[in-house]
Specification:
The protein has 14 helices and 11 strands. It has a 6-stranded mixed beta sheet with strand order 2-1-3-10-4-11, sandwiched between helices. A 5-stranded mixed beta sheet has the order 7-6-8-5-9. It starts with a helix and ends in a 19-residue tail after the last helix.
């Protein structure tokens, strides 16, 4: 009888061990990189909650102004997750032959036509005008070129389109009166208007993109090392849930979120509060994310294959999740 009890206890203990080994591990510690500016705005509530121990996962955050620094850290393993321009995520996937995955879209288009010229109300009104922009070689350049082409605007023929080296330079040239209009991303739209109240934002390129496509203009994506996804997909799902809550909070609470953005030295609160409503902060995941990104990547690939690393990402790039 005693032997039977011992045997039963052993079987019971072993069963518990098997169940424990099969249980899903839906928490983890992640090293997360966020770029200063709208790319990382949606994560600011998550950052603050993590600092206060209020998240299910644990997050070690790096906030950097240089995209190259964040991508290098992701590739080297110093980061597990990074918020990046959407085309940069595809480039890393191709560069590493599949060692980078994408798990979500963090922002849609943040490009706007800014002018003090009252005659400019639509894209057609840019004909014979001088326009300055920035972001050469980025998603912004190819999205702008595509939208211009589809609306009959041909740089060098019926519109002047010059590229400044930096967003701040393009804004300064518009403010100086050297150009009729500028295509700027947030928060440079807001900061320009704060410097010169004769300027106004008149056209959203995100809306113009939507008129031409079924997909959204995805500007920022959330990239994750593929080995991290493979080892712990449940914890990645937890991250996506926590990021979604953060993005929704920021979009609905610009004043409080702006205070957090300044707290973590991303941007001054006054400018951030005005910029947030125009930053199209989202959390798009799963099949919807895949379809939207493919729509963007197809247009970028047609414009310049190198803009996404020379090839369209394969299906294993997109983490669909649960």
């Amino acid at each position: 009888m005693k032997k039977r009890i011992i045997a039963f206890v052993l079987v019971f203990v072993l069963s518990l061990a098997v169940l424990a080994s099969c249980a899903k591990n839906d928490t983890a510690t992640f090293k997360l990189g966020v770029l200063k500016g709208p790319t990382g705005f949606g994560a600011i509530s998550l950052i603050d909650k993590a600092e206060n121990g209020q998240t299910k996962n644990k997050y070690d955050f790096t906030i950097d102004s240089a995209s190259d620094a964040v991508t290098s850290a992701l590739l080297s393993g110093e980061l597990d997750i990074a918020f990046l321009p959407s085309n940069a995520a595809a480039m890393l996937y191709n560069k590493t032959e599949g060692k980078i995955s994408v798990v979500g879209v963090a922002t849609l288009g943040i490009l706007y036509v800014v002018t003090r010229d009252d005659s400019i109300k639509t894209l057609a009104d840019l004909k014979d005008k001088k326009v300055v922009t920035s972001g050469a070689g980025s998603t912004a350049e190819y999205a702008t070129s595509y939208i211009f082409s589809e609306n009959g605007l041909v740089p060098g023929e019926n519109v002047t389109l010059d590229y400044a080296s930096e967003h701040s330079e393009a804004a300064a040239q518009l403010i100086s009166g050297a150009y009729d209009a500028a295509i700027l991303p947030e928060p440079f739209v807001t900061s320009s208007i704060m410097q010169d109240d004769t300027l106004k934002s008149v056209i959203s390129l995100t809306e113009e993109w939507s008129k031409l496509n079924d997909s959204e203009l995805c500007m920022a994506a959330i990239a994750v090392r593929s080995d991290v996804v493979e080892k712990n997909p449940e914890a990645i799902d937890t991250f996506l849930t926590e990021y979604t809550e953060s993005a929704e909070f920021v979009a609905k609470n610009p004043e409080e979120s702006a205070q957090l953005i300044e707290k973590y030295d991303i941007m001054k609160a006054a400018a951030a509060q005005k910029a947030i409503p125009n930053c199209n902060i989202v959390s798009i995941t799963g099949e919807e994310m895949k379809n939207d990104l493919i729509g963007v990547y197809e247009i970028l690939f047609q414009a310049n294959p190198k803009s996404i690393g020379g090839a369209m990402p394969k299906d294993d790039f997109y983490y669909i999740g649960k």
